[in-house]
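Mods, move this if it's the wrong board.
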Amino acid sequence: MKIVRWMGGMVWVAALAACSGQEQAPQAAVPVLVVHPGEQAGQSPAAFPGTVRARQESPLSFRVGGNLVKRHVDAGQRVKKGDVLAELDVADFALQARASQAQLAAAEADLVRARDDLKRYQVLADQQLVSRSQLDQQSAAFKAAQGQANAARANLDVLRNQADYAQLRAPADGVIASREAEAGQVVSAGQTIFNLAADGGREVLIDLPEATIRDYAVGQPVEVELWNRPGQRLPGTIREIAAAADPQARTYATRVSLPADALADVELGQSARVYSTAGRHGTLQLPLGALQRGANGAASVWVVDPANSTLKAATVTTGAYGSETVPVLSGVAAGDWVVAAGGHLLRAGQPVVAVDRQNRPVLKPAAPAAAAKAKE
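Not the wrong board. Structure tokens:
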């Protein structure tokens, strides 16, 4: 703040001298606060807390409803593909299957009778003892009996399958991540009983803020640090970004995949941090106070010429404005000294003393005589 006030005072003195009509003395250099693009605060990698999850997480449920009589596994237990995890009471399914079997037997008896009747009517029709319409009626009755028998047979198969569905089996090797039901509970078809974390890939689930979501993309490399192993970072890749933000938190659920050789180092449910330089690495950043409006309305900054410590305007192309900084896509280089504040008090060709945030000169000050000669 002291630097900006001193700078403003020097500009005011220079303006009074111009209005007096007297010949101007060589202008003294004014101090300006300068920074390199990308070296201000906020350029460290962004860190997001997350949790290690399985890439394939399956909620397991029965295909039929009933009374849960047995639970063979608990949360955290390893299972193999095909292992029985839980069972429903099959008494009702057995009774239904027996009833369906009886209906099938009755339907098949009706089918045999209808077939025999059709054969007799065909003989009588050949002897012209019955009309053609009576033969057609008997043929239709046979087809109806045949359909009833087929339907009863299919219904019996369905009920037998339901008895098999009363056993919940693991679809893959993995770990039971959570348990959602207890023995004795009446569950409905599709109700989650267990959550299975399948063996294989491991990922870190994080939430990306809405304000910077455009800085991230699928396939972007990141680094993962487990909380129980500080300082050791594993390589990762953004595999998936949710298409819509959470309506309450306004964040995007994101999954970061880990390499196969890191599976031995991580456990399900571990806490982790994901570090990313997206929006920071490779894109220069400047403080918001460095931007000025140029003559044509475009964004502009003051750059200090290292040869003579004078100012020159540089038109820049910027990205989306942040809370304290703005990305600069073109117009300045990483090694340029850019005026960070007070640009509205300066003008092109003005000699300056470039200082950093500790008030230390970073360039050789301009000589007043040389600056006056340059003006001429």
